Amino acid sequence: MITVNCLRRGKYVKRHLESALVAAAATVLLAGCGGSGESGRPSMSGPRQKDVPSGPYQLKMPKSVEKGTFTESDHSEPDQNIASMLSGQIEHGVSAFAAYQPADRKSETSGPVVSVTGVYGTVLSPVTARDEFLKILDSRTIDTDVRSTVIVGPRTITPQGSSEPVSCRIVRRADEFGTTWKPDCSWADGSAVVDVSQTVDPDQPPAAFDLEAFAARTATIRDEVRAPQAS
Fold it and tell me: How far is CA 130 from CA 16, 160, 228, in A?
């Protein structure tokens, strides 16, 4: 049974990275054999903020996030169809995407996968744009028969040390492989809409996941992916 479970979990991780190409990290998978979703647990204190940007910005995905503790594991070409689908909400939209795993991971299937998906440009209505953006991510997958349900949240959380809130939730997904769930936190402003998600062990109860800590992780990543707008 251990071998079978490991193979199944390996398929889940592979499936997550394949989905990133098509669904920009909308598929939630297992973190890997022997690993729990709590690996690389973020600090509750959040970032010591650069805080609200002084002007328009773009998204630049660095080689590492979370102060170097997560390194890039997938930097597939972003799905520009997402920006096209949001053209009524974001002018001159450009999609951005990267996935990260713990820097000390033992293999490509160990530790959680943290995915950052966003669209930057001129956001006409941040609230409406984020709503549409999350609907797109929830509905996009490499499979046709998938059902997504928000089971926790959305909750507005302002991490300690930050003046900008993020909106966090937990989404359950059911498909031919079974039922999984994922946490995600997002933000939206005049420059971008961005979603940060993380793979977890679906055998763990969603209610036990620490959304406050994940909000702090998201706030740190927010500072790390913001870059001054090119002139």
Answer: 22, 23, 21
Rounded distance between C-alpha atoms, residue 73 and residue 102, angstroms: 9
- Residues 113-130: pLDDT tens digits? 999 999 999 999 999 999
Residue 118's identity, in one-letter code, is G
pTM of the model as a whole: 0.78
Give the Cα-Cα-Cα angle 108, 82, 141 (nearest 5 degrees): 50
Question: Of all helices (H) and strands (E), which one includes residue 98?
Answer: strand 90-102
Dihedral of CA atoms 62, 37, 201, 76 in degrees, nearest 10, equals: 10
| CB contact set of 7 (below 8 Å; sequence gap of 6+) | none
- How far is 62 from 121, CA to CA, in rounded Å? 19
* CA separation for the pair 223, 65 (Å, rounded): 10
